[in-house]
Amino acid sequence: MPSHSPLVFHAANIYLAALSLIFLFSPTISSTALTKAKTETINQVLDGHNSARKAVGVPPLQWEPLLATYARVYSSNERRKDCKLVHSPGYGFGENLFWGKGSRWTAEDAVAAWVAERQWYHHANNSCNAKDCSHYTQIVWRTTQRVGCSKIICDSGETFIACEYYPPGNYFGQRPY
Ligand SMILES: *[C@@H]1O[C@H](CO)[C@@H](O)[C@H](O)[C@H]1NC(C)=O
């Protein structure tokens, strides 16, 4: 689990501001361009995250289009060729990655796979038993407020899904909730 300094929060704010400017001057992107399918995906992602959060008593996340854009740009530019589970530079975001053989995986599947790690997490000693559960702890991290995700099909035909979180979770030595 990585630790972060307060500086990265500042960096993330600047990055989000820069992305906002790109949006402002991009004639091709507008909120009205959201298709019904995209709205469904967003609802599935939020439902998956927020039911897991509700179960442990932490407030719900909101969808952040700028985080989704960041995920899409990183996935398309850096991972489309190799489809590897390699993290982005982050810029102070938390990040969950999912890889699946074939193209039929949805964001809902990815979130369900991450939430299933709950079985490995022990709150009493704040540790994952035998297997990684850091995707789950990011999902239920109390101070995280926003999420944005993207799915791409890699050149190989496999699925790569990334969700970005802000503020990030998984601070070493801290409990998610
Ligand atoms: C944490 O607690 C669980 C459940 O009692 C136990 O199985 C696990 O070994 C503990 N992990 C550590 C690192 O102490």
Automatic annotation (TrEMBL):
It comes from the Eukaryota. CDD domains: CAP_PR-1. The chain crosses the membrane at residues 7-26. Keywords: Membrane, Transmembrane, Transmembrane helix. It comes from Liquidambar formosana. This is SCP domain-containing protein. Gene3D superfamilies: CAP. InterPro entries: CAP_dom, CAP_sf, CRISP-related. Residues 40-173 form the SCP domain.
